[in-house]
């Protein structure tokens, strides 16, 4: 096993470290290992943009033979993790709003849960992402929609309605 440093956003770093210790030990049975294993190289990745967003690193303990490939794709992995965690946050907000909690309150609860602050991911940016998420939901066809439109009175089932099978507890 070898320890490698992968560029990540501080937003993703805090969410990952809420569950794992650093260095994160990647074993094939963990979802995080599977995510990092399938990240494909993207030929047109704008590294300059990613350097501004992926402003931190996270240590991962991996098998020696996998280290070179993961290091080669470090920027893409960091970008994937950030996108995944933004979607994770949006699913959290959606679940809370289905229970009647205002979106901004749900967002603040998410920030508190993972000790995220404005330097990690600006609340304005997160709220704009939430607005775009809602707009995208409006444009889904009837057959693409699986979420109920009305408030879920049984909030314990909200995670299962959203098919939120995430490795973090919220």
Q: What is the mean predicted local confidence, pLDDT?
A: 81
Name the shape in a single word: globular
What's the SSE pattern? EHEHHEHHHHH
Describe the main β-sheet briefly: 3 strands, mixed
- Compute the number of strand runs: 3
The fraction of residues in strands falls at 5-15%
Radius of gyration: 17 Å
Q: Give unreliable regions as ranges.
A: 159-170
Which structural class is indicated by helix and strand composition?
mainly alpha
- How many helix segments? 8
Can you summarize this structure?
The chain is built from eight helices and three strands. By secondary structure, the protein is mainly alpha-helical.
Structure description:
The protein is mostly helical. It contains eight helices and three strands, in the order βαβααβααααα. A three-stranded mixed β-sheet has the order 1-3-2. α5 crosses α6 and α6 crosses α7. The longest helix has 25 residues.
Question: Layout of SSEs?
Answer:
Layout: E1 2-8, H1 10-17, E2 24-25, H2 31-38, H3 47-53, E3 56-62, H4 67-72, H5 74-98, H6 103-113, H7 123-138, H8 158-161
Parallel strand pairs: 2-3
Antiparallel strand pairs: 1-3
Helix pairs in contact: 5-6, 6-7
Keywords:
mainly alpha, 8 helices, 3 strands, single chain, disordered C terminus, 170 residues, three-stranded mixed β-sheet
């Amino acid at each position: 096993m070898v320890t490698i440093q992968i560029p990540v956003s501080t937003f993703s770093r805090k969410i990952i470290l809420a569950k794992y210790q650093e260095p994160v030990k990647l074993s094939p049975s963990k979802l995080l290992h599977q995510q990092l294993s399938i990240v494909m190289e993207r030929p047109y990745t704008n590294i300059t943009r990613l350097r501004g967003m992926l402003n931190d690193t996270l240590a991962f303990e991996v098998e020696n033979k996998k280290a070179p490939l993961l290091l080669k794709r470090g920027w893409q992995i960091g970008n994937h993790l950030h996108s995944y965690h933004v979607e994770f946050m949006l699913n959290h907000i959606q679940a809370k709003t289905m229970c009647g909690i205002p979106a901004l309150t749900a967002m603040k609860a998410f920030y508190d849960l993972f000790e995220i602050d404005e330097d990690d991911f600006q609340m304005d940016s997160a709220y704009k992402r939430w607005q775009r998420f809602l707009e995208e939901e409006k444009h889904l066809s009837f057959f693409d929609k699986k979420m109920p439109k009305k408030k879920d009175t049984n909030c314990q089932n909200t995670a299962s309605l959203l098919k939120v099978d995430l490795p973090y507890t919220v």
